[in-house]
Queue: 3 jobs
Job 1
Amino acid sequence: MWRESLALGLYRLLAWLAVPWVRRRLRRRARAEPLYGEHVAERFGRYASAPRSAAPPGGAPLVWIHAVSLGETRAAAILLRELRAHLPGMRLLLTHGTATGRAEGARLLGPGDLQAWLPWDTRAATQRFVRHFRPDIGVLMETEVWPSLAAACRAAGVPLVLANGRLNARSHAGARRLAWLARPAYRSLAAAWAQAPEDARRLREVGAPVAGVLGNLKFDLAPDPQQQALGLAWRRASPRPVVLLASSREGEEALWLQALGALGAEARTVQWLVVPRHPQRFDQVAQLCHAAGWSVSRRSAWANAPQAADIWLGDSLGEMALYYRLADVALLGGSFGPLGGQNLIEAAAGGCPVVMGPHTFNFAEAAALALQAGAAERVADMEQGVRRAIALALDGAGRGERSARCTAFARAHRGAARATAQAIARLLPARFFHRPPAAPGEDAGDWPRAGS
């Protein structure tokens, strides 16, 4: 115990000493993404609003969800729909660590909801955060377990849970190396619900109280039907099949352009579309394409339809459903460098088969399931990926079958959102509890009864 206390004390000292560095980093990032320069005081546990009073008996709960970035915020949106159905009148406190997450999260807010930056993990900032908002439960999405924040919640009696939990091999090894610091943080959780059995095993090994394997929330995402309809209309109007480089990360576009150059005329048998993962890189990617000798048409310049160009650049946020429906096949960004891969479930839900590189450790279970279902293929590197994507796109006879495999795969793994919302509701005091009407075939015993 004394070793854990010493480790936490040293960690808190280092976090406090890092505050000037954090402030400088925020100023630098704000030059490209101005949102990083807004509400900076929230990063250190200081807020303009009045502190919240404790919820009165019979009142509605304040559910705090932390979604660090864009992907976690989209998963939170899926869970939030179920939570609002099961907890009518609930208020939401939504926190983030990145500008893309906060911008996306603003779309989820309703009357009375709150949004803030998650505080830097110093003892003082996290304690001020918990005292100010007084959440009735905290829900961390996927990976974000911070030692000082966990300790502040435990001291204040706020149940803190990990939803859609995942822990890849690299993070697992790091948590085990820092076991004196990480284990108490994971052990302080009220519950953890894992995406996959392997995530559950790793989470248990670092001390988390794993309460179940509920699957991946992102399978419950329903693609925007208007975006899908528009994407399909644009695809039908394209004279060539469309290949998408989806959610590309820094360094991958250069590999992709190098592969296109090596293929020569073969690379021009399809229409290329690239959507960078981070919006601050849209201009940079456009410049890379121009420098490689390719003409570019940007989504932001399209009025009613894509403009003719060698490469279409998807420089918009929140339109991946459109891009996946526009494409015949997608190269999975983040998987061609040691970055862990991006979410392939959204592609499958849109009926778009995926070609992925060797690095998918962030979504290992989903990647393995997609391979088994025929919704994805794996290649060794970007050059092989480009060649395979072109071959699939030009195979018109097999296009419908591959798309059907993708949508069937996505549908087969739904249900995590409802199960997670039920599990969260069980941890709230009985005065907050509301059981919706039973669905056909639902066991009423799945829900706790008032006063239980």
Job 2
Amino acid sequence: MQNNSVYNNVTQWQLLLLAISFLTRIPVKLRFDVSTAHLNQASRYFAFVGLLLGGLLALSYGVFQLLFPPSISILLMMAIGLLLTGAFHEDGWADVWDGFGGGWQVEQKLAIMKDSRLGTYGAAALFIILLIKFQSLLFLSESLSSVLSAILLGQCLSRMVATSLIMSMDYVSEDATSKVKPLAMHLSVTSLTILLLTAAALLAGLILLGIISWQSALIISAVLLLLRLILISWFKRQLGGYTGDCLGAAQQLSEIAIYLTLVSLL
């Protein structure tokens, strides 16, 4: 029986630590035996983990820009991001493009996506998305508050969008070996609510601080809602559902959508 503080004798704090352990390389001590049900429940904190990552990356950029020009500071910050996450989502992005670009049937696409080798489609897609991130953040770095808020929004809201897809699509069962398999059971209303509240709290906080306007917040929300619909249509057309790699690709696309939206609003 689930209540507000404990799920199968595991506290919400422990579920947050599990979410951190799943999405990052940050060492945490989990003092319980992790089950698939626990990992599914921990997904409610994925947007919050994104906020934590955004805070660490924003802090690192703030320090680097005291010593180096913006271009070098952004590259160093991006490198730290890859180290903190183990390039978890970037790997999914590359695998999706390899699979969707190199396979004709669903089974072929899934087989290619499981292959640990990086293909031409994946390599090109990875290069392009990293370059877009760099160029967008470099443009936004003309204002320190703009680039720091972009980092926070990009890391938090993108993970909210990616995780929310679990509620709207079926998991592709052939991808049974994926690390994301335990998340595929469902996304509860409570988990979705926490994801949305985390994103909303960040947007509200930036509005209250005068860093972004409420109009900008609405535009970003509308862009992400439209992107979410496009992602659902794309994944269903390609696979009939989603895999863990699809969620990684969704996070990456959502992140650059946020950066490009902020660039267009300046």
Job 3
Amino acid sequence: MKKIAKLSLVAAVAVMGLTTANAQPLEEAIKNVEVTGSVVYRYNDNSNDTTAGSLYNGKLGADKKDLSKESSATNNYKVALGLSSKVNDDVKFNSRFVVGAPTSTGTGDAGFASLNSSENGDQNVGTELTNAYFGYTGIKNTTVNVGKQGLTTPWTVAVDSDGNEQTGTGILALSTVGPVTLAAAYFNQTNLNNSLDAKLGGFANDTSPDEDIIDAAVVKGNVLDGSEDIATIGAIVVAGPVTIDAWYLDAQDKFDSYTVGAKSSLDLSGVKLGIDARYASLSLDKSVAVALKDVISANGVAEEDNSIAKLALTAKAGIFDAKVAYAMTGKEGGLTALDNDATTTLLGWSITSNGKADADYWQVVAGVDILSNLNLSANYGNIQYIAAANSTVDVEEEEIYAQLMYKMSKNLNTYVRYGTYTKEASDNTSSVDINDDVRGRLQVEYTF
């Protein structure tokens, strides 16, 4: 983190809360203020050659709107600024601002502002206050954060430079005793109603109902509306080269979940190896699952029991690197995360295991360093699952793409991706192609 070199008087007043009653010299006002942040620009271009595929509520050819993804080109922006001010020796005030969603369609998810360059003119974007909390460190090896902050759990993403974020108002405590770190948190309000990548009931799938039925489920209160109390406890243990963690989370009257994970890294004769294993289980309250099924239909995708087991292996030898990852979800459901980037699910570029029932998901990556700061990789992903619990429809998604990543400096990097994505569904009598895409992306990220 860096101290602010220059700050206008207006900004200093905003940050420090100065008034005529407690005015002080500008130099004193800003000397204990630190700033961090990120700037990300992303261009996405998707071209889908298939427009006739129809998969609705776990069935083929249903007379509902086509869920195929149309071609699109978007400019995406996200700018984040974190300000930290020392109040006294034991207390620090922290705030975070995100320039994201367009002003006319602010979503409260602290994600990208996505501007469709194929259909619309340029737009300005709005600013969200995502964090405003006090951090107390007056107890040895203990941190207590109170206020509006990121949800620091395995199911969520508290801070993300190039994605959406989960936030809430409450208290988080972390305390380290020897090799053990204990965590506990309670939030009485969150932005999960806006930031969820996967709604309860599997709405992350393209097999989900169209918007009017999703809206009906929201009206009935069958998905998280942000007012639920969220409580979590966790323990992280460092045992030699292995780090083990175990967590439990409860969302009031909605669901409870637990996860256990272990990861390790070692160096064998110049080959750096890594292993990361995790299991997670999420159980919807029965009333929620029943209500969701009632909203969707008798053959809906909402199930009480959801689970995932995943394993990732990485290797780095000289200029070469590789990764193999595998995830499988429960036969009833695989809704195990509140963000597709969370550690309790597995995400590729266009493929996620989150919300997919009875899934087998493979990822394979092979890369080479062309230069010390230039890496070229080939990426493959394939997932097979059933459209909904007890459905007779099988779905397969596959992506193949190349990625060129250039790290110009420590705080500036960019990558280019280009490849294909396909999705097809079949039952005992027929099959449909839902996606047959060519996809490209350019991203530039600057951090400070």
